[in-house]
Amino acid sequence: APVAFEWLWKAKCIPRIKVFGWFLLSDRLNTRNMLKRRHYNIGDNLDCLLCGQPVEETVEHLFFHCDFSKACWDT
Ligand SMILES: [Zn+2]
């Protein structure tokens, strides 16, 4: 298994956070990008709803590039 998963499961935090981390590392969070890949009927607009930028809502965007998320991390 990749090192990140070993680190995650050995981390001293509540299981709920570990499961969220597992979803994150496995690219299984329900972003608009993921919902579209699973053929959910969400229309053609995959833009991020948090920042309003015309950028597809992916895990990478939500955690590393989204202006709204950056503002949350900075507080
Ligand atoms: Zn965004």
From TrEMBL:
It comes from the Eukaryota. Residues 5-73 form the Reverse transcriptase zinc-binding domain. InterPro entries: RVT-Znf. This is Reverse transcriptase zinc-binding domain-containing protein.
